[in-house]
Every structure is written in C-alpha cells, then in structure tokens.
C-alpha cells in the first residue's frame, strides 16, 4: 500500500517537476504531495474552515429553536473548555441537593439584594459532563470556599471524584 501511494505521488509530480530538474529525484513527488496537503490543511483550518463554520452558524441562527439550543450550548462549551478560569471565578462547596450533601459549584457572578445580602451566582455542573447543570443563587454565607482551583474542581467533576485531591484545607463540613 505504501509503495502504491509512493508511486502515485511520485508519478503525479514527475511530469510537472522533471522538466525543471537535470535528473529524476525519487520521492520528490511524495514530499511535494505532503507539503501540498499540509498547506491545504493550514488554509482550510485558518481561512476556509472559519468561513465554513460561520456559514453553518448563520444557517443555524435562522432556525428558531435550533439557534437557541446551539447558542446556549456553544456558550456553555466555550465557558467550560479552555477558558474556565475566566468563566468561573472560584470553586465553592454548597449544600445541594439537600442539607448534609456537599456539592462543588462554580461562582459565575455576585450580587446584592435590596437589604444588602450578598449572593453568589453559581453553576452546579453534572458529572461527568460539566456542560450541563443548574444555576442557583445562594447567600454567600451558605457557601464554603473549597480551597480548590477551578481546574481542580472541574477535574473532580469530570472524573466523578476519582481525581480529587487526597488532602485539602476543609476541616469541617458539619453545620
């Protein structure tokens, strides 16, 4: 199979290149073919690829329900993948879904109510897919700093707790 590919590329390039060279160089067609594919890949991923993605997104935006679902999924995916340290301010522990059960949540914002009580805006991801979850607002006094970085918290969520640190600074989760 390798010989067939070698002969194909070499035979394809030979009539184009040999008139400019004093003798035939075996394998030059393969090198030129690989170089051509590499340059084509760069072109597609940088210019053409972006253009195709933007055309696809423009088509999706025209479909009412699909645009809502796609836009939301894209925002969540961008928030969680790669840029999580910017999307999530810190990882905290909260009682969720009931008192006595502790869950890792990520602070996405803060606000105050009319009486001045400070609240966290939290995203509580699901395991093992952190792109889905629930958003809750709780008083900051009901959250405990997990002492975990956002990346460590995400690793714990995605791994289902298997990549949890063996020791942490949390001393008491009792109320």
Overview of the molecule:
The protein has a five-stranded antiparallel sheet, covered by helices on one side. The protein folds into two domains: 2-61, no CATH class; 85-159, SH3 type barrels (Roll). The chain is of the alpha+beta class and 175 residues long. The termini are far apart. The protein has five helices and five strands.
What is the element layout, followed by pairings?
Blueprint: H1 2-17, H2 28-61, H3 64-80, H4 84-87, E1 90-95, E2 102-112, E3 118-125, E4 133-139, E5 144-145, H5 150-159
Antiparallel strand pairs: 1-2, 1-5, 2-3, 3-4
List segments where confidence is low: pLDDT < 50 over at least 5 consecutive residues: none
Give the domain tally: 2
Integer average pLDDT: 82
Q: What characteristic shape results from the CA principal axes?
A: elongated
Number of separate strands: 5
The CATH architecture of the largest domain would be: Roll
CATH topology heading of the largest domain: SH3 type barrels
Question: What is the string of SSEs from the N terminus onward?
Answer: HHHHEEEEEH
What is the gyration radius calculated from CA atoms?
A: 27 Å
Q: What top-tier CATH class of the largest domain fits best?
A: Mainly Beta
Major sheet description: 5 strands, antiparallel
Q: Helix content range of the residues, please?
A: 40-55%
Distance between the termini: 69 Å
- The number of helical runs is 5
Question: How are the strands ordered across the major sheet?
Answer: 4-3-2-1-5
> How large a portion of the residues is in β-strands, by DSSP E?
15-25%
- The chain-level structural class is alpha+beta
């Amino acid at each position: 199979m390798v010989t067939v590919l070698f002969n194909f590329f070499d035979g394809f390039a030979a009539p184009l290149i040999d008139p400019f060279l004093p003798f035939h160089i075996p394998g030059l067609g393969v090198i030129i073919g690989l170089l051509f594919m590499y340059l084509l890949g760069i072109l597609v991923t940088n210019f053409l690829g972006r253009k195709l993605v933007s055309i696809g997104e423009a088509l999706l935006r025209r479909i009412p329900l699909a645009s809502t679902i796609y836009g939301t999924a894209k925002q969540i995916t961008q928030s969680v993948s790669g840029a999580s340290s910017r999307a999530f301010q810190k990882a905290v522990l909260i009682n969720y879904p009931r008192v006595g059960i502790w869950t890792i949540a990520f602070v996405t914002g803060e606000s105050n109510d009319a009486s001045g009580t400070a609240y966290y805006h939290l995203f509580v991801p699901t395991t093992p897919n952190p792109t889905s979850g629930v958003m809750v607002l709780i008083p900051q006094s009901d959250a405990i700093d997990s002492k975990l970085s956002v990346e460590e918290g995400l690793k714990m969520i995605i791994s289902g707790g298997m990549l949890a640190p063996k020791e942490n600074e949390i001393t008491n989760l009792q109320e």
